[in-house]
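Protocol step 4 of 5: obtain the predicted structure for the target chain.
Materials: sequence only (see below). No template structures provided, no constraints applied. The aim of this step is simply to have a reference model before the mutagenesis design in step 5. Sequence pasted as it appears in the construct record:
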Amino acid sequence: MKMTTSKNTKVRVTNSGVKGFFERSSEHARRLDRGERLAPEVTVSFENANDIVSILSPQRIRVLELAKKGPKPVASLSSGLNRDLRAVSRDVDLLERFGLLRSRYETNPGHGKRRIVEPCAATYQLVATV
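Step 4 output (structure tokens):
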């Protein structure tokens, strides 16, 4: 799943499921009918809080926090977090699939290519209802 977001986008992770989707959609429709502008926002919704916890482990939250400081190669994230490069790369893959991070490849002169990771949003909001 590839999402186009900007630095001004807010990403919300919630466990509101289908019901929350329809509530958000209705609210957005009402605001648009009133002529209001909607701020850029991406909502990643899960059916229950356990799913959020399995995706946003403490280690993955640390990856998000470090990536929010600016674009970084995966190797820099790995060394900054004192974690194995392959483990960090897998975490980046997962967070990218859920639209929380994005990555691109750039030439690393004399060494092939390197993967640069950056946040998809300026703000991340975690909402879990138990």
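Step 4 remarks: The two ends are 27 Å apart (CA to CA). Residues 10-127 form a domain with the Arc Repressor Mutant, subunit A fold (CATH 1.10.10.10).
Proceed to step 5.
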